[in-house]
Amino acid sequence: MKRFWLLTSIALLFLLLFGACQVKSPAQTKNEKPVIFVSIVPQKYFVERIAGDTVNVVVMVEPGAEPHTYEPKPAQMQMLSDTDLYFSIDAPFEVNWLSRIADINPNLKVVNTAEGIVKRLSTEHHHEGEEETEAEHEEEGELDPHIWLSPRLVAQQCKIISDTLAAQYPENAQAYAENLNAFLADIEALDQTLKADFAKTTNKTFMVYHPAWGYFADEYGLTEIAVEIGGTEPSALELAELIEHARTENIHVIFAQPEFSTRSAEALAEEIDGEVVLISDLEEDWLANMQKAGEAFLKGLE
Ligand SMILES: [Zn+2]
What we know:
Helix content: 40-55%
CATH superfamily of the largest domain: Nitrogenase molybdenum iron protein domain
CATH class of the largest domain: Alpha Beta
Radius of gyration: 25 Å
Number of helices: 12
Structural class: alpha/beta
CATH architecture of the largest domain: 3-Layer(aba) Sandwich
Number of strands: 8
Bound molecules: zinc ion
Order of helices and strands: HHEHEHEHEHHHEHEHEHEH
Shape: globular
């Protein structure tokens, strides 16, 4: 009888040990879905439109922060060790961080969704009467990073996202392809609406504090004028030039976004008897925000 209990105990011990080996690592049990990082909030929407709830998407540049100068938090750097994919988008902060992130996490697959997109030069304010050659502009000009504000370019980025997800999680490839098609149809409808709307406006020039809407402007035959100059507030002299410019272009709305100071935008609006209208380029519901922005621009151009 004693022997029986001894054997049973040994068997139980084995079971326990064997069972322990089956237990997943704490990271896996805590979070069953694979983790995917993106740089900015709208990308979260893109990935979720395609992946549905098969993944958890974490955004590097948290809402309200600013993708031009962001610095990842230690906790975010820590989380990357449990992350399968990082969808980058050539956001300015990535220049300093992405290679470091890739070096520390050799298993992390970093995929640049800006791949294949031909960038425009950032909208810069030009001084009246100053001639500038294309080469000079090219030399001093920075490439415009706001490629998520053109429906056409977003469609391009989403194909890369969908292909990458399908390769990483082939069991969901069919669903990803269907979700991509549904999203592409929404993008197409948005694009058609914006095309039709802006074809009707006679005013085509708008003024915006931070020049985020250049791709949008290019797409719909509009011209963007930036209030911000070289990433900072304009000087008094530059502000006077902008006021003059706004008057000649019959501008009465200055667009600004919550992430940036609106001091000079307010000053400008006051001088031209206009108003400041806030539109964010980093809202989570990208589709709704693009519709909202389209309506705001349309109203501003009236
Ligand atoms: Zn920006």
